[in-house]
User: Fold CRAL-TRIO domain-containing protein from Caenorhabditis latens.
Amino acid sequence: MSGGSTSTAMVVENHYPHISELTSHQKDKIAELRSKTKDILATYPEYDTDFSLLRWLMGWDYKIDVIIPKMKYAIETLVNLGMNNHQTTSIQQINKDIKNMSAVAEYFPGGIMGQSKRGDVVYMQAMAKAGAHPKTLVKAGPTSQLFQLCISETEMSFKIIRQTEEEKQRKMGVIIIMDLDGFNMDLLYTPTLKVYMSLLTMLQNIFPDFARRIFIINCPTMMSAVYAMVSPVLSSQTREKVRFLDKDWKNHLIEEIGEENIFMHWGGNKKHEHPCGDIRMGGKVPESLWYNETHKLEGDRTKISISARSKTEVKMYGETGKHFHWLWRVSSGDIDFSIEKDGRVVWPVFRCLTEFHPEIGSYKIEENGEYVFVFDNSHGKIFGKDVKYKIVLE
Assistant:
């Protein structure tokens, strides 16, 4: 994904340079950004590469003062999700790890198909036919679970990218393919569309300049209206990378990616026992996985009211080795939720919607002290919101 518009000066630069092709301007800016973010990078040393920093610079027009707080949020989120300690051994392992994140993961379509002949990671998302089924997905897991899955999957892809960049000494990216074969209006279910928009915004903020190409295949005639709904949350740089492919899309993909790197279902000859490989193909989530309000934290909860443009904090003492467990619902709309300790965010800021599933989670306490649970309605301009929550220490 990408985070900002491309300046006129950047247009003449090679967007995917070899290390030897970096301009003196780029080298100077990389060194400046590294110097000003050394404390942030120290929490995730693997992230500290010239090309990783160049992505931020290219994604945000080399505006270092703009980049620093955004990078802090991004790396903070990745570290909170344990990505700094996650060992990525292969693409097959990534797909397996994502499926194992939750029982619902299998029903959110997508997965890494492999790498292109250049070395870019190829991500396939088959949204239609079996595809995503928003009306059952929202009943089967909290919003934060979807955010964790998508951020983790993207960062695991990023780890493959960094490994390839180290080998080839050239900046790489991700080729995203969105297959809309069998598209139906259920995909535009309003409550989940809002969640998806928040997810797109978050991914762009955490992963600037990540997509090299975004190919959309099997487009229905209504796609122009759908794209008009989604495009406002896409940065101009992301929009520039979107390509709607015609009926000859298989040949386009083969030319761009290589036939040997595409599963048979999409016109290639990459070998796998299943034509779609290990890509998650989605489908309706069975009722057995829907939330049924029998969670141990259901029942008596504390109510707090949060005015528009404000936040409320709940403080609790935590003991090393124990866990915080929580369950909460917001009366309407969504709320930003996070956990802080000593001014540091230790549970990522996620904008959560609880209309169909309460926000449920747990956090393992690594050090004694006071923890602050933040319910933030700063993005609410007019209406206040009530939250009913229960947090226990076990």
Summary: Confidence is low (pLDDT under 50) at residues 1-11. The chain has twelve helices and 13 strands.
